[in-house]
Specification:
Blueprint lengths: L25 E9 L2 E8 L8 E9 L2 H8 L12 E9 L11 E4 L9 H4 L7 H5 L10 E4 L1 H6 L1 E3 L6 H4 L2 H12 L8 E5 L3 H12 L3 E6 L2 H9 L4 E4 L2 H11 L5 E6 L4 H7 L3 E9 L13 H6 L3 E4 L5 H12 L9 E5 L4 H9 L5 E4 L2
Parallel strand pairs: 8-9, 8-11, 9-10, 11-12, 12-13, 14-15
Antiparallel strand pairs: 1-2, 3-4, 3-6, 3-15, 4-5, 5-7
This protein binds zinc ion (2 copies).
One zinc ion binds next to helix 2.
C-alpha cells in the first residue's frame, strides 16, 4: 500500500555541471505533475551512502493507491511514485553485508523505526518514521537509492524461481497477509471478499491457505471468473440483495465469519453488516472515494459484537512471509499481471487501470 502523505521529490534536476561525462549518469523517471501531466524526465543518479544500495529497477508495479493519489491529486508535485519494486543491485556501500553487486532484490518502501510508541505496540504502519520513509526517488525510476534501514529490513533476495515481475507482489501480498491474520480464521470458516482486483484475488488465495472458503464479489464478470479460477468457492455479482442472499447460503444462514472490503464505498461497509455473522469481523482494506461516508448504528456493533478494523500497509515480517508464499507457489500472481509498459506509457497505464481493463500493470523503466 502507499506511503502516507506527500513526499517532495528530492532528486535534483540535471544541472549543466552534472552533464559532464563520468560524473553522474542521468536516470529516467516518470514524474507526476498533475492528473494528466506525467512526464518522463532525466534526473541525477542518487549517490549512495556506506550502508546503502543502488538498484537498477527492472519491474515496478502500479498500486491502486498510486492511482488514487494521482486521480485525487493527493500528492504534491513534482513526485515520483511507485513502491512495488524489484531490480538488480548495481552498487553496494562498503558497510552492506547482506547484498552484493549483481544480486536480484525486491525492495519495500517503508521501514519502521522500531523505537517509538507505535513500534513498541507493533503498530509498525503507524510509526511516523515508517510513513515518512521511502526509497529515493521512487519506484517509477530507472535507478533507486535504497537507504540503510531499508537495506537492512525491507530488502530481500529474490528466490531463483521468481521473476522480477512476480517478486514485485511481495509488498502488496504482505499487506493482504497482515490484514487477514486479524480475522483469526479457523478451518471451515467462510469469508466474503468484496472486490476481485489484484488485492482481492490475492486475498482469495491467502484465505484458502487458512482453510477457509471464499465468496468473491465484483462488478465485472471477467474478475468473477478469475476469482473462481484462483480459488473462490463461489462468486456473485455486486448487487446488494444478491450478495446478501449468497452470503447467507454460503454460511448456513449465519452470515460469514469475515468480510474483507478491498473496494467499494462507505455504503459497502454498511452493507457488510448484513453479510457478517454475530461476533464476526469486517476489514476495511481500501480507501473509498473522497466524501463517501458510512452511517453506522453503534447498537449493531454492540449487540452483535461486530469487530470492525482497518488494516493499512504491512511490516517487515509480513514482507518476509509474503515472499515465502510467492517462492513456494502458494500464491499464484501470474494471472494478475496483465500489462508491462515502459515509463513513457504511464498515461496509458493509468487509463487502463481507471477503466478496469487491467489488473496489475508493471512499469519497466
Ligand atoms: Zn501499494
Ligand atoms: Zn516507530
Amino acid at each position: 500500500m502507499g506511503e502516507w502523505g506527500n513526499r517532495r521529490m528530492r532528486a535534483h534536476r540535471l544541472s549543466h555541471s552534472s552533464m559532464l561525462p563520468f560524473i553522474h549518469r542521468p536516470l529516467r523517471a516518470a514524474v507526476y505533475y498533475d492528473r494528466e501531466d506525467i512526464r518522463v524526465e532525466s534526473l541525477e543518479e542518487p549517490e549512495i551512502g556506506l550502508g546503502e544500495l543502488l538498484v537498477r529497477v527492472k519491474a515496478s508495479g502500479i498500486c491502486g493507491t498510486d492511482l488514487v493519489k494521482i486521480l485525487n491529486r493527493k500528492v504534491r508535485p513534482p513526485a515520483i511514485l511507485g513502491h512495488e519494486i524489484a531490480g538488480e543491485v548495481i552498487k553496494a556501500g562498503p558497510q552492506v553485508k547482506s547484498f552484493k553487486v549483481g544480486d536480484r532484490v525486491v525492495v519495500a518502501h517503508h521501514v519502521p523505526c522500531y523505537n517509538c510508541h507505535y513500534c513498541r505496540h507493533q503498530n509498525y504502519a503507524m510509526c511516523r518514521f515508517y510513513k515518512a520513509s521511502n526509497v529515493d526517488p521512487g519506484g517509477f525510476s530507472e535507478y533507486i537509492r535504497v537507504p540503510e534501514l531499508h537495506t537492512s529490513h525491507t530488502t530481500f533476495l529474490i528466490p531463483p524461481q521468481l521473476s522480477y515481475d512476480q517478486a514485485i507482489f511481495m509488498e502488496p501480498l504482505a499487506c493482504c497477509l497482515k490484514s487477514i491474520r486479524r480475522c483469526n480464521f479457523q478451518p471451515g470458516d467462510t469469508a466474503v471478499v468484496v472486490g476481485l482486483g489484484p488485492m482481492g484475488l490475492m486475498m482469495v488465495q491467502l484465505i484458502n491457505l487458512f482453510h477457509a472458503r471464499v465468496l468473491g464479489v465484483d462488478l465485472l464478470d471477467s474478475r468473477l471468473e478469475l476469482g473462481l479460477q484462483l480459488g473462490a468457492a463461489r462468486v456473485v455479482s455486486a448487487q446488494p440483495e444478491a450478495v446478501k442472499q449468497a452470503a447467507m447460503e454460503f454460511s448456513e444462514g449465519r452470515g460469514v465469519d469475515a468480510v474483507i472490503l478491498t473496494a467499494g464505498t462507505g455504503e459497502t461497509l454498511v452493507q457488510a453488516l448484513e453479510l457478517v455473522r454475530d461476533s464476526g469481523t469486517i476489514n476495511s482494506f481500501a480507501s473509498v472515494p473522497p466524501g463517501s461516508l458510512a452511517p453506522l448504528d453503534p447498537n449493531i456493533l454492540y449487540h452483535r459484537e461486530i469487530t470492525l478494523y482497518g488494516s493499512y500497509s504491512s511490516a517487515p515480517t509480513d514482507l518476509a512471509h509474503a515472499l515465502k508464499y510467492l517462492e513456494t507457489g502458494k500464491v499464484d500472481v501470474n494471472p494478475l499481471i496483465t500489462h508491462r509498459l515502459p515509463l513513457e506509457r504511464f498515461p496509458q497505464a493509468l487509463q487502463l487501470l481507471t477503466e478496469k481493463k487491467a489488473l496489475k500493470v508493471i512499469m519497466v523503466p
